DNA sequence: ATGAAAGCGCTAACAC
DNA sequence: GTGTTAGCGCTTTCAT
């Protein structure tokens, strides 16, 4: 277990100069003679010197780490957003430490504590589906810990956030169904505490109105975002006296659950039931039939989130909400045969 | 930007004792009087003291960080393995820093450099599909940097590794097809440099032999693991004078590509063509028809990998290979109607 | 039983 | 132009 990294001290000793001279030479301090600078830089390059981030962190009280907490790690949506965050973090010389709340409030709190203990400089959070109470987030605000949220957000007047234009997306879906000839359009939402639930619901309602369709409470279902609960919600819709002829779900997993339930009931998509989801490109094309869906600009969402984070990190605690446009990609699942 | 964390110094000042006394009291040093110990611990708890990991790292020359490099972050397989690694890392007070090679050799090298610069204590790597040359990994060995690999491994006589029993899995698939009545079984493999390609190929061949089926080179196709290249490979198989009646692909994405190409060609699964893949539970059930597939014990693979990592970290550089069993889950895609 | 001091790697204010 | 020193938070040896 030989000594793994060369330090300024090592270089200084070898060159018979002081540590500060080496330090200065490396950062092109004007006081240093050309000759020494060259000598130092050459040796540093040769020995593969790189400053010890721990020492720097200790000195500057900055770890250059950002903590990210997502509801889960196995959903493309989050992975892709994380990639976006990473891409700009890396540019700034930061790296990210990722934690998953597994959709549990307790785990979310625990992760916050862990990350703070690891001395991240701030947090980027997407709430778990259980997060009805935001006390733990308010505490972060009080402690003046940089915090930015995305997708499932809250307290947006105090916390910077990046979200998709969810209301608009839902409206687009309703309008799309309408244009394809579907008339009884159902929606399977998620837990009420989530901002995405509220926003997408709002868009659904204005969408119906815009098309001149009546609002029927029976066509509004809720699930807890799991595949199984989505299936169950769909089954309830199918058992209505007058079932819907189209349905859309709040996210990928839910959309797949809906499709499963519909097929299991022996109905055909898109003939008997049109389906639209909020999913990523890849999985929409993999399912059968290919799923018409609203795709989020996930990578860009991640980048924007990181940008807001750095803004917050370097300047005062003002909050800003960035809303990104979604795209409705038409595929077979909503192509009602005439 | 108030001072965010209390230090030993803060506690010491408030209690009018020395820093060392506080330090000792907190770790139950026998020399400390019961009275002082209690006093210190109470205040520490009250002030929510937690040792600064940067200072500890600097002192102990240990960051308690593990670097992980995976080919991509948006595949369930890797996410799940990462979760497994994290679960045991966390237990040991370590945390993981994740980097993606995006299947590129250059990015893999770059990530290694980045992570080392961030002073991870060691690396856990799954090779990119481009990694034909292992020099950069051998350099890690030479530098005595703890390294463990999983799934796509190499140099297993020097590097500890966790893999699935890939040969066995392929054999099971062939035997399964055979038992269902399929006789011309094709295989779409991945790049030759990957261990999983070789192992799964070997199993395919012994599997055919075990069933008394002839080996037909025309039924062996290769792709670069993308959805598109898998489709292309399947199309080549479909254009054979005598096309296969069953096919399996080396991973999820490939399996989905195969299905897509088969359906696009107007063939029915499982009637005209049986399909089996290596995928996770969730996506296998989402596609249509549900895909018979070999599932990896991904979470467990991650845990085992982490265990090997810590073994390597604490003791000498001996290498060990752990092979985990896979499970063939039968679904509709290989249920040939009689 | 407790305190002082050195040192982990680095920077910056202060000598000279 | 270069060296010395203090200090970031912590542990540990050596004094007392």
Automatic annotation (TrEMBL), chains A, B:
Ranges of residues in domain HTH lacI-type: 6-60
Keyword list, A-Z: DNA-binding, Transcription, Transcription regulation
SUPFAM superfamilies for this protein: lambda repressor-like DNA-binding domains, Periplasmic binding protein-like I
GO function terms (MF aspect): DNA-binding transcription factor activity; transcription cis-regulatory region binding
InterPro entries per the UniProt record, alphabetical: HTH_LacI (IPR000843), Lambda_DNA-bd_dom_sf (IPR010982), Peripla_BP/Lac1_sug-bd_dom (IPR001761), Peripla_BP_I (IPR028082)
Domain of life: Bacteria
PANTHER family assigned to the protein according to its UniProt record, in alphabetical order: HTH-TYPE TRANSCRIPTIONAL REGULATOR GALS (PTHR30146:SF109), LACI-RELATED TRANSCRIPTIONAL REPRESSOR (PTHR30146)
Protein name: LacI family transcriptional regulator
Organism: Mangrovibacterium diazotrophicum
Taxonomic lineage from the root: Bacteria, Pseudomonadati, Bacteroidota, Bacteroidia, Marinilabiliales
């Amino acid at each position: 277990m030989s000594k793994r990294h060369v330090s300024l001290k090592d270089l200084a000793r070898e060159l018979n100069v002081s540590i500060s001279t080496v330090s200065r030479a490396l950062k092109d301090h004007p006081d240093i003679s050309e000759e020494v600078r060259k000598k130092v830089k050459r040796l540093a390059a040769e020995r593969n010197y790189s400053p010890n981030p721990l020492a720097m962190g200790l000195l500057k009280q900055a770890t250059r780490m950002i903590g990210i907490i997502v509801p889960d790690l196995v959903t493309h949506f989050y992975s892709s957003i994380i990639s976006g965050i990473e891409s700009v973090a890396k540019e700034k010389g930061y790296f990210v430490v990722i934690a998953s709340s597994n959709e549990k409030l307790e785990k979310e709190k625990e992760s916050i504590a862990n990350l703070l203990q690891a001395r991240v400089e701030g947090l980027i959070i997407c709430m778990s589906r259980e997060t009805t109470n935001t006390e733990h987030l308010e505490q972060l605000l009080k402690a003046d810990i940089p915090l930015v949220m995305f997708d499932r957000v809250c307290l947006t007047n105090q916390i910077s956030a990046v979200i998709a234009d969810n209301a608009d997306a839902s409206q687009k879906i309703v309008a799309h169904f309408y244009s394809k000839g579907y008339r009884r359009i159902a929606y399977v939402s998620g837990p009420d505490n989530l901002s995405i639930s509220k926003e997408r619901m709002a868009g659904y309602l204005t969408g119906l109105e815009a098309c001149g369709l009546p609002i029927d409470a029976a066509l509004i279902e809720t699930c807890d975002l799991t595949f199984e609960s989505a299936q169950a919600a769909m089954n309830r819709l199918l058992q209505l006296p007058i079932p819907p002829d189209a349905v859309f779900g709040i996210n990928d997993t839910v959309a797949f659950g809906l499709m499963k339930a519909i097929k299991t009931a022996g109905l055909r998509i898109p003939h008997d039931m049109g389906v639209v989801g909020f999913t990523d490109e890849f999985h929409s094309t993999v399912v059968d039939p290919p799923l018409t869906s609203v795709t989020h600009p996930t990578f860009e969402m991640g980048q924007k989130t990181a940008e807001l984070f750095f803004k917050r990190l370097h300047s005062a605690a003002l909050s800003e909400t960035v809303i990104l446009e979604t795209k409705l990609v038409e595929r077979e699942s909503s192509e009602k045969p005439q």
